[in-house]
Amino acid sequence: MSNVAVVGSQWGDEGKGKIVDWLSERADVVVRFQGGHNAGHTLVIDGEVYKLSLLPSGIVRKGKMSIIGNGVVVDPWALLAEMDRLREQGVELTPDNLKISENAALILPLHGEVDRAREAAAKGDAKIGTTGRGIGPAYEDKVGRRAIRICDLADPDFLKERVDALLLHHNALLRGLNQPEIDGAGVVEKLLEIAPKILPFVDVVWQRLEECRKTDKRVLFEGAQGAMLDVDHGTYPFVTSSNTISGQASAGSGVGPSSVGYVLGITKAYTTRVGSGPFPTELFDDVGQRLGERGHEFGTVTGRQRRCGWFDAVMVRQACKVGGITGIALTKLDVLDGFKELKVCVGYRIDGEEFDHLPSLPSKQAKVEPIYETLEGWDDSTYGARSWADLPATAIKYIRRIEELIDVPVALLSTSPERDDTILVQDPFHPKS
């Protein structure tokens, strides 16, 4: 038996929600280990649609413990609003089934103000395409040792000191952006008001996970975004503000690397991206529009339309190597139904030179020309297929070619948003079976 970490292998939006839900039914504990409420999962269970941003996907399953790890930046107001929405849908949330790491950093309203002010001040290509929810500034405060952490809510005097130190930095920044300064007393008042609603859920998460290890509980580590948005390994600076690869599952939850187990990379059968930044296989024609319409490519959190393009095997292979991905879950294969031919990017060309990886230098990333291999498409529907026998032969060839190009096998195949429309090739919780 193995624990499982679920990560995105592209730019996020690969369909992690359904896969995590599918796995969470068989897990005992689900841990969210990075990111903030700028990411979203949509779960469809027995016809009921659940939209999650901060809460782990296991929260909608009875009898599961859900954990928000220290690697997450938590907007307490957004968290309580999300909890209220789920309660209205009949989901039980108590300190018994939801635990928040005591050392997780908080996102404050001022972080969103700073985020939006900076993005508004940026010009042209300097705009990142941030959601404006304060994720970046909150992570900056964390590494700058200015952050307000959840445990600070339990000590009003210490909290006031921390807020004063935080505003020494942020008010100077806001002055430079010609924005109004923030009143510290108001920030403290809001935090103390919300503290009694949050503190009952706070726990020493690393100890809970150590107990799980000793009692052989199955743990599912849930990431947000995708590998190419990783702050170190993604298309910097057009990235998120945290590490999104599987190594963060360890640091962001408080367990050793050996406890992470099988790494499942969620991989869309084509490619999408939200926001600014390089996108080698992006399509601006009718094909790109068709992919977006058939795939319903709009962000769960922001509603922003996603940019669409052909499958980029170079990028996914790089994500698999950097992120230690054991197997992939290939999603949205059905969106490709009816295409006469499909293209897969097998290499890059930059100024006449061929590359088998995406260079880190932004000026080179901006010049990438994809080298395509053309594959035969299929007319038959793959929607709802639950076995290899249900798939057209050319669809199977497409899958096998992707496996060859990224050097990682397909462990799961998703053929619709419904959780049961899944072909299991290798069980991540029992990888040797």
UniProtKB/TrEMBL annotation:
Protein name in UniProt: Adenylosuccinate synthetase
GO CC annotation, single: cytoplasm
Superkingdom of source: Bacteria
Sorted UniProt keywords: Cytoplasm, GTP-binding, Ligase, Magnesium, Metal-binding, Nucleotide-binding, Purine biosynthesis
Record-stated family: Belongs to the adenylosuccinate synthetase family.
PANTHER family: ADENYLOSUCCINATE SYNTHETASE (PTHR11846)
CDD domains on file: AdSS
Principal location listed in the UniProt entry: cytoplasm
Catalytic reaction list: IMP + L-aspartate + GTP = N(6)-(1,2-dicarboxyethyl)-AMP + GDP + phosphate + 2 H(+)
Cofactor binding note: Binds 1 Mg(2+) ion per subunit.
Subcellular location: Cytoplasm
Binding site for substrate: T300, V301, T302, G303, R304, Q305, R306
UniProt binding sites for IMP: D13, E14, G15, K16, N38, A39, G40, H41, T131, R145, Q225, T240, R304
Cofactor or coenzyme needed: Mg(2+)
GO molecular function, a single term: GTP binding
Binding residues annotated for GTP, in chain numbering: 12-18, 40-42, 306, 332-334, 414-416
Pathway: Purine metabolism; AMP biosynthesis via de novo pathway; AMP from IMP: step 1/2
Gene: purA
Subunit annotation: Homodimer.
Keyword tRNA processing recorded: no
NCBIfam families reported in the protein's UniProt record: PRK01117.1, purA
Catalytic residues identified in the record: D13, H41, K142
SUPFAM superfamilies found in the cross-reference section: P-loop containing nucleoside triphosphate hydrolases
EC numbers: 6.3.4.4
Reported function: Plays an important role in the de novo pathway of purine nucleotide biosynthesis. Catalyzes the first committed step in the biosynthesis of AMP from IMP.
Biological-process GO terms, alphabetical: 'de novo' AMP biosynthetic process; IMP metabolic process
Binding site for Mg(2+): D13, G40
